[in-house]
Write a structure and sequence with these properties.
The protein is mostly helical and 144 residues long. It has helices at residues 4-16, 36-50, 52-56, 68-77, 86-93, 104-133; strands at residues 25-28, 60-63. It folds into two domains: 18-83, no CATH class; 85-133, no CATH class. A two-stranded parallel ribbon has the order 1-2.
Length: 144
């Protein structure tokens, strides 16, 4: 896990806050696509390295078994009294704009960066599109 997944995980932590991580279930998937020993090693790496702070704060880890029953088993673990996320509390209790919350600035900065990368990536296509959309004269010697 590098780059965007790690940044998204950090944003998720800021968005939720540590008080509500007991309501978070980190679900591993695709168990039918991998050998059990390899999957278990990867799951252990997630637990011990990437998800450790979330688990320490109360998040749980479970496997999705690719079945209807497995999905409902996971959902049933979420049943209980609602617990608002940190950003929700900040917006309601402190009457804050989302951009002012603990997660807001990081999320807006990330989206701004992604938007800039997307615009940069699209610029050659815009140039081609503009060139193709220019009207052409039926007489090649006359420019419009």
């Amino acid at each position: 896990m590098t780059g965007t997944p790690l940044n998204d995980l950090a944003m998720f932590q800021r968005l939720c806050g540590t008080d509500t991580l007991g309501n978070v279930i980190l679900v591993t998937t695709m168990w039918s696509e991998i050998d059990e020993p390899i999957g278990s090693l990867r799951e252990q790496e997630l637990r011990s390295k990437y998800w450790k702070p979330l688990i320490k704060a109360g998040a749980r880890v479970t496997r999705f078994g690719d079945t209807y029953e497995s999905a409902w088993e996971i959902i049933s673990k979420l049943m209980g009294p609602p617990c608002p996320a940190k950003s929700q509390k900040q917006m309601i209790d402190r009457v804050m704009n989302f951009k002012e919350t603990a997660a807001g600035p990081a999320i807006f900065q990330s989206r701004t960066n992604q938007s800039g990368k997307f615009r940069h990536w699209l610029s050659p296509f815009r140039t081609i599109s503009r060139q193709r959309s220019r009207p052409t004269s039926p007489n090649p010697g006359i420019r419009l």
